[in-house]
Each structure stands twice: as structure tokens, then as C-alpha cells.
TrEMBL record:
KW tRNA processing (keyword) present: no
A single Gene Ontology CC term: cytoplasm
Protein name: RBR-type E3 ubiquitin transferase
GO molecular function (one): ubiquitin protein ligase activity
Entry keyword annotation includes Cell wall biogenesis/degradation: no
Pathway(s) where this gene product acts: Protein modification; protein ubiquitination
Lineage: Eukaryota, Metazoa, Spiralia, Gnathifera, Rotifera
Main location as per UniProt: membrane
Transmembrane segment boundaries: 231-261
């Protein structure tokens, strides 16, 4: 009876995504590179969710696996329009991560420019798109501003523009803002910046950028919520400081123990190495002492030895 149950269980497959038991092998999808198996519908929905963000490759849904799905497998799982979107996302990722390639910053232009070697690390240099003929600054990716620093290149008209699509300042990935605050985080490079003036907010933990300048009071949140945010940041810093202060005496008490433990490990290691070296030397010495004695012994050939009896 137990053997029959075991054989029946072997025909039941459990998907690690939906955790459902499946008996029909036709609805199971196996990845070629790693042979991981999932429900076909689960893998399809997983691929659809992955193509909504910039990506290099679609990884295996198994978190412990580092394989990727091939293009043929993705083509089978997705529709034609979804597969075209996947190829577009893949192309955008390749362009944004290649320092020699550059998307035209014009919103309605998706032309890719190939930068010469001498312009890859250049700053505040004019470059013109060969398709839309837009001239922009290579550093800030804004309209070319001769004799003017990049920080002052944005005009009030550009800041008040109601365009809901802009490009990340760092990687030039196109972003769409439909609602919410003006503090934007790029989904491609995780760069944090202001939506209106495109200034970096990576180190502005208290969002003081919206307390002065042309972006004042344009965050999109109430003063109360902004105060709670700053209070939360201060509280987080206080908690981390207290943890460091409390952990310092503990680390000081544990340091001698760790040093002694490490010293014993090294001492045992060197002792074992010395004993092993001494043993090898003794074995070599005994071999050398026995070698002349063995060489003096006659070599008997038992096959040709004749013993006669009287």
C-alpha cells in the first residue's frame, strides 16, 4: 500500500510559485538551462511582470537558481506584442548600460547616438541628434546652454511644463509620472531626483530641496506629512546611534575573546604544519637509510632457482 502511494505521489508535481499540486504534465513548463519546473501559466505571468521594468535577462523564478530564460522560451510564453516589448526593454537596458551609447533626450525621439571615445567622459559639450537635429548638453542632457552652467540651464517654462514623461538624469531612462510627489526614483538605476528641476536628491534625506528655490512647496505632500517624514528620519538616526553606542562595549568585551580564539586557531595550524613537516622529513630520512641496504641484497629469480634434494 505504501509503495502504491509513493508511486502515485511521483506523478504529482507541486509548483513552487502557486504551491498547487498538478497531475497533468502538459501544463508544466521546464526551463532548458536549469531544468526547473513550474506551471506554464505561472511562468507566463512572471514573464509579463518582468517585462514591465527594465531588465537585462529574465531570471529563473527560483530564487536559489541563477539561470535565465532563453529568447525562444520567452517567445513561446508571450504574445507577439509582449515579446516585442521584451525586446524593447532589453535594448533599452543595453543602451543605458553602455557608456558609448546614448538615447536622444528629446521625449518624442528614440534615436540612439554613438559617442566617440573622446566624448565619453567629457562634460558640458554640445552634441546634436542626427535624427531630430536637437542640440543638447552631454552632461545634463538638457537643451544646449552656451556660457551657462548646467545647474542654471533650466528655464521657468521648462520647470512649469506639464509633460508627464521625462528621462532620468543619470541613465536617461524614460519615466512617466501620472500622480504623486515630485520626489522621483528611477526604476533602472535607482537614482533619486526632483521631477521639476531634475536635481539629485540622493543625499537630501530631509528633502530640504523643497524649502527654497524655484521648487519650494512643490513636493506634493502636506507640511504635516513632510514633518512626519523628517521626524522618522531623525528617529532612525537616533536608533542607529543608540545601537552603535550599546554595541561598542559589547564589541570591546568580545574583542579579546575573538583574538584569543583566532590565536589558538593559528597556533594549532602552525603546530599541525610543523608536525606534518617533521613526519615527512622522518619518512624521507628512513627511506634514504634503507635504500643502500636494499641495493646490496642479491636479486633472486625464483623462476630460475632449482633446488635439488639428495
Amino acid at each position: 500500500m505504501d509503495e502504491e502511494l509513493r508511486l502515485c505521489d511521483e506523478h504529482i508535481f507541486r509548483c513552487s510559485i502557486c504551491c498547487n499540486d498538478i497531475e497533468e504534465r502538459t501544463v508544466i513548463f521546464q526551463i532548458e538551462s536549469c531544468h526547473c519546473q513550474f506551471c506554464t501559466e505561472c511562468v507566463r505571468q512572471y514573464c509579463i511582470s518582468q517585462i514591465s521594468i527594465p531588465l537585462a535577462l529574465i531570471k529563473c523564478p527560483n530564487t536559489e537558481c541563477h539561470s535565465s530564460l532563453s529568447s525562444n522560451e520567452i517567445r513561446i510564453l508571450l504574445t507577439d506584442s509582449q515579446f516585442q516589448l521584451y525586446k524593447k526593454r532589453l535594448f533599452e537596458h543595453e543602451v543605458t548600460n553602455d557608456p558609448r551609447l546614448l538615447f536622444c533626450p528629446q521625449v518624442n525621439c528614440d534615436h540612439v547616438l554613438i559617442l566617440p571615445e573622446e566624448q565619453i567622459n567629457s562634460t558640458e559639450q554640445a552634441i546634436t541628434c542626427t535624427q531630430c537635429q536637437t542640440t543638447f548638453c552631454l552632461k545634463c542632457r538638457c537643451q544646449w546652454h552656451p556660457n551657462q552652467p548646467c545647474s542654471d540651464s533650466l528655464t521657468s517654462d521648462e520647470m512649469n511644463a506639464e509633460s508627464n514623461i521625462k528621462r532620468c538624469v543619470r541613465c536617461r531612462f524614460p519615466l512617466e509620472r501620472t500622480d504623486g510627489c515630485a520626489q522621483m526614483t528611477c526604476i533602472n538605476c535607482k537614482h533619486m531626483f526632483c521631477w521639476y528641476c531634475l536635481k539629485s536628491l540622493d543625499n537630501d534625506f530631509f528633502l530640504l530641496h523643497y524649502e527654497r528655490g524655484p521648487c519650494r512647496n512643490r513636493l506634493g505632500h502636506s507640511r504635516a506629512s513632510l514633518f512626519l517624514h523628517r521626524l522618522l528620519v531623525v528617529g532612525l538616526f537616533i536608533v542607529l546611534t543608540i545601537l552603535v553606542i550599546l554595541a561598542s562595549p559589547l564589541l570591546m568585551l568580545m574583542a579579546p575573546c575573538l583574538i584569543c580564539y583566532r590565536y589558538k586557531q593559528l597556533k594549532n595550524y602552525f603546530n599541525n604544519s610543523t608536525m606534518w613537516r617533521r613526519t615527512v622529513q622522518e619518512e624521507n630520512a628512513s627511506t634514504i637509510e634503507q635504500q643502500p641496504i636494499i641495493s646490496l641484497l642479491p636479486s633472486w629469480n625464483l623462476d630460475t632457482c632449482n633446488i635439488s634434494t639428495v
